[in-house]
Amino acid sequence: xxxxxxxxxxxxRGPRPxxxxxxxxxxxxxxxxxxxxxxxPLGGMLTRGFVPDGQLDLGAVGDVLGRSRTxxxxxFTLGISTLATAVTLALGLPTAFALHRLAxxxxxxxxALVIMPFVMPAVVVGVLWRGLLASSGPLGWLGLDGSWVAxxxxxxxxxxxxxxxxxxxxxxGLDPRTAEAAAALGAPPLHVLRxxxxxxxxxAILSAASVVFLFCSTAFGVVLTxxxxxxxxxxxxxxxxxxxxxxxQGAAVLxxxxxxxxxxxxxxxxxxxxxxxxxxRRGRRESRRLPLRRHHLPAxxxxxxxxALILAPLLGGLARSLRRGGEWTLANYADLAxxxxxxxxxxxxxxxxxxxxxxxxxxxxVVLGLLVSLAVTRRPRSRTGRSLxxxxxxxxxxxxxxxxxxxxxxxxxxxDRPPLDLRSxxxxxxxxxxxxALPLVVRTxxxxxxxxxPRQGEAAATLGAGPLxxxxxxxxxxxxxxxxxxxxxxxxxxxxxxxxxxxLIRPDDPTMPVLVYRLIGRPGAAEQGTAMxxxxxxxxxxxxxxxxxxxxxxSSVGAF
Length: 560
Known about the structure:
- It is a multi-pass membrane protein.
- The chain is mostly helical.
- The chain has a domain at 68-235: MetI-like fold.
- It is 72% helix and 1% strand.
- The protein has 24 helices and four strands.
- Helix 16 (347-376) packs antiparallel against helix 17 (383-395), helix 19 crosses helix 21 and helix 21 (467-496) runs antiparallel to helix 24.
- The longest helix has 34 residues, at 68-101.
- The radius of gyration is 25 Å and the shape is globular.
């Protein structure tokens, strides 16, 4: 009788949807969100550029690409991004080795310090480096203020964390027995590194290099703050063409050029990630940290240089925020409580606005990111299904590389009529920031889900558990910490978002990054000091959020 009832139950439930169908069902809402709040604004911006009068006009492509300024902008973008990627790898790889393989006292604290710059607001980083290298700053004697070297240093400051997290996580996962066997056979350390470790780490290194190049080529706040009009990347040129010249055709051409480059980089990153899955991993046992030896001194020296690179702008900015008129004072911080001239709100009000928007954006991005992660980590048996999910995964990475300026301006020109008349709605800014944070949330949650043993879910299904019950009993117990980490990561990213927010925010209710950018552009010493104090406060808030995330010890945070 029991078997009869079970058979009836199975008949009533009907066949369960396959992994591919289930993934598509999970992705319906995120895909709709991506379509409305990414593809529609992007398409609107491109339409304004290429179909200005209702007729397709591709003549602007040759005109824009033929401009001497465009050639300089593209050349500088490629040059500075390539150089920054090379320097970041040169510093990041020895740092990853030192922090993940050597028995260094306080390694956990040092890892947290190295990761910290990645989530700092770009405008804040630009302001801190500008204060450090200005003629009146601690390193003003170097004469680097307003130079391309300042932009390079800021890019490396930002992205060394990507290399350390990506390659460090791969290094932790390697099976140490191969290297130990080579060493036992008499191979010197450099030979082991060259012949055993680097080939195994090549996918992670390639993935990290691709992501660093992507972030450098799409840097906005740093280049805008440190480069001005003298040094422009494609991202800042789109901003200049859109806001100052209203040259939407030029902005559209550069946006398409950037999008093509981003798709190519995402393809390289995905290939590297797939190659990394085939690398032999260690078991559950912890790999032993290596005792410090004399031949480790070069790696330790590079680690010291990276720590100095990170601390210099932070300490320099803190010192500048405590000085006014040549004297040590807290006046700059006291002025944060006053309504700022030309803005009408205080620094603390701007921080409150940033926090409210960031909370909404973080919750939205985590809900959508969880659905996307559950979808792209399904395990279809067919090659077509796997390709479909890989394409779905790549689609949600596109917002990482498309200009936030393009999306922000696209919001204004497409979401201005019913049924999506949201141009004056306060929900538009959290939505824009959630779009920026969504790819990072997916990259935090999805790797954890991929490591869940599918046999546990199959065993639960055999015992009669439905999809929801299987998710609650199998995946949720390993997901709650990554979910908390994703919330913190999204909060930190949203707090510092500047590109799209600068278009959408009301002039009389700015976020903290927008306020910092406005103040740093004013000539008065009081405004400059207040901008530095606001930058330090915003940096402290984002760092505090990420410090809590780091305590969760989720290796996928910040690793791509």
